[in-house]
Amino acid sequence: MEPTQSLIPPLLSLFLFFNIYPSAQYPSPTTVSGDRHREALRRFEALKASRVRLSDSPPSPSPSPFPSPPPPGSNGPRVYLPTSYGADPTGKLDSTDALLAAITDATNGHSEGSLIAGIANLGGAQLYLQGGNYLISRPLRFPAAGVGNFVIHGGTIRASDSFPPDGYLIDLSTTNGNDKTTPSSSYNYEFITFRDLLLDSNYHGGGISVINSLRTGIDNCYISHFTTNGILVQAGHETYVRNSFIGQRITAGGDKGERNFTGTGINLQGNDNSITDVVVFSAAIGIMVSGQANIISGVHCYNKATGFGGTGIYLKLAGLTQTRVLNSYMDYTSIVAEDPVHLHISGTFFLGDANVVLKSVNGVVNGVNIVDNIFSGNNNGVEIVQLDQSNGNNFRKVDQVVVDRNAVVGMKLKSTVAKKIVEANGTSLMADFNDVLLFPNLIKHVQYSLSFEGDTFPSYVLRNVSDNRVVIQTSEAVPANLYVTVDQSIYN
């Protein structure tokens, strides 16, 4: 008998008994007349009978602890719960098959129209992890391509010790290995969202892989203990990573094992992606970009100090960078750009000798703006922008490169625009800009003026511009001040 069924009737009878006999005593002939006595007994017997009927009624069915999944083809709300498929939310037992079954049912569910051609609209179906902790031994892949408008959210997924070292906890690719196209669409998936997830790769493989997908969202995720990539984006279009925390080892800086950090926090191998308000706190490379037209904004990289061999942001698409790095924080980690073409870096704080390195591959740098940043160093003579020409192929094709208006403390200022005042008494006045100009032997524009003392006004001429030196020759020796502005960025 259920507890509520055994307690309520006695309370009810007691309540009615006190209503009948306020004195809480059984009636007696001396206190109650005959008719009133008989009526009281009749009512008391009726009360006992009703109590017996209530006690003998069958118990109501207890609710199912795990709601059943929506039936296939259902037009109603479709929220799929892993526990309905037998998943263990404590993380003690392997839940791979249960999670894959839930994903299969969700992606095979009712769809209404399509998104981009060939992508079925699942209507916002959800795999809700219910705040559980799920252990998996194989990647979570969709059963087939061609679906969109689906969300996985609200829990923890952790790799088991047998998870494949080259796998990803969530693998948004196709199970047949055809990751470049589907029969009816140029993309595998569209508008798939991963949010409010903690992904623990357990030092086996990576976190999330997004292959040839369109408009994918990764929001408010914590990805740790990866050995390859926290997030891999390959081909596709418009993957947006927002408000997330990514690190191989869980640390808040000053880790004794920092020299041994490996892997890459985010690896962008596609075009038109965005990384916004993301922290990469441990990895050999914070963000690797080898696709075009990507934007990185509000990122904090302290993944592995450059002094320990780490890189904050590595722009690897030589000759076609087309990347913007805005309002970010490079915390002891540098930005490296190979043969950058169309690169904009501004509003970013570089701490602890972090800087920008332009690395020559074919000796090309074009359309680069490094402006309005803050550099704070440790007085080690590190240049805020450095040329890496260690392969012996110096930068020969330099055009439209602007490095200017940067605030510098404790580091060596480098710029493509510079001004100097030279005081001299003779026929030759020279301004040497090698200490500040970025590129050697490259002055494209000179503007100067002379101020003479006394009543003489000799003739003068710009005699030489080479080796980043400006030489002015006068017709006679006189005390003079030379004011010079030079520019390496003028368009050819």
Distance between the termini: 92 Å
User: What is the averaged pLDDT score?
Assistant: 87
> Sheet with the most strands?
27 strands, parallel
SSE-based structural type: mainly beta
Description:
- The structure is a single chain.
- This protein has 492 residues and is mainly beta.
- It has 3 helices and 31 strands.
- The protein has helices at residues 3-20, 34-56, 96-107; strands at 79-80, 120-128, 133-136, 140-141, 147-159, 168-172, 189-200, 206-211, 213-224, 229-247, 264-271, 274-282, 285-289, 294-297, 300-301, 311-315, 323-326, 329-331, 335-338, 341-346, 349-351, 356-359, 364-371, 374-376, 385-388, 397-404, 407-409, 417-432, 445-452, 460-466, 469-487.
- Helix 1 packs antiparallel against helix 2.
- The N and C termini lie far apart (92 Å).
- The model is unreliable at 1-33, 52-65 and 177-181 (pLDDT under 50).
- GO terms for molecular function: polygalacturonase activity.
- Its main location: secreted.
- This is Rhamnogalacturonase A/B/Epimerase-like pectate lyase domain-containing protein.
What's the short version?
The chain is mostly beta strands and 492 residues long. Helix content is 11%, strand content 44%. Strand 30 and strand 31 (469-487) form a beta hairpin.
How is the secondary structure organized here?
Layout: H1 3-20, H2 34-56, E1 79-80, H3 96-107, E2 120-128, E3 133-136, E4 140-141, E5 147-159, E6 168-172, E7 189-200, E8 206-211, E9 213-224, E10 229-247, E11 264-271, E12 274-282, E13 285-289, E14 294-297, E15 300-301, E16 311-315, E17 323-326, E18 329-331, E19 335-338, E20 341-346, E21 349-351, E22 356-359, E23 364-371, E24 374-376, E25 385-388, E26 397-404, E27 407-409, E28 417-432, E29 445-452, E30 460-466, E31 469-487
Helix pairs in contact: 1-2
Protein name: Rhamnogalacturonase A/B/Epimerase-like pectate lyase domain-containing protein
InterPro entries: PbH1, Pectin_lyas_fold, Pectin_lyase_fold/virulence, QRT3-like, RHGA/B-epi-like_pectate_lyase
Organism: Acacia crassicarpa (northern wattle)
